Amino acid sequence: MNYAPPIPKPITIGFSPCPNDCFIFDAMIHDKIDTEGLKFEVFMEDVEALNQKAFQYKLDITKLSYHAYAYLTSEYQLLNAGSALGNNCGPLLISNASPKAIVSELQIPNSKLKIAIPGKYTTANFLLSLAYPAIPNKVEMVFSEIEDAVLEGRVDAGLIIHENRFTYEQKGLKKIIDLGEYWETLTKMPIPLGGIAIKRMMPDELKSQVNKIIRKSVEYAFANPESSLNFVKQHAQEMSEEVMYKHIHLYVNNYSIDIGAKGKQAVQLLFNKAQETGIISEIKEEIFINSIVSS
Question: Structure pTM?
């Protein structure tokens, strides 16, 4: 008989304080849906901090960048629910300087430009590396600090994600490139940004159960869009309600309910591109939980 590790009580789960994650997970962590006896201990951190926790194998379930997951396939498996994929929602490279001047400089080998990024293992950084493979000077920052770093001249350009794509123009910053548009033009596929991973060692039945609960949580959020508002606001800092809803509508969609065949194809294509460019090694494991088990 195969040994099934005991289910931890409670199960640790990590996700970001961003509006899209608060919207997705509100129902399941606040007992608005049936969690089938499972209890969750929540850790809320910036996505790159969650990526780092995954590298340390600290959380049973976690939101993480698809780029980071490419290095963690032997430790974690992806759920079919809870993903952030879509169109016209990719990271933006922005600057205070002339876009043409920045683009010209980016194409020079050993450019001296200093670029702020929201983390080495973010999908945003992967897309930047795909578009401009020769950038030598990257500075890692919490995503919410990047706009100010650009405005203050501490970096020449910044790679922004999340709600900053709705605020950078108000601060006089200029778009250099939309890396989401770059990806979609290159591949004709949606942009795979982040997914929900579960420890591979956990029993398949538990993986299925967690996937079902997260799916129900997303469906509840869609059916009751105002239910999560207090939780979203609690973690939205000074974000306006308009920006909160824009953020949610941009990153939570049908792929968040179930990633589906096209979504999985987009994720696999991301990994294929990473392998072709030598960023990651070949992935041999089955990366998603069994679609039959998760139904």
Answer: 0.89
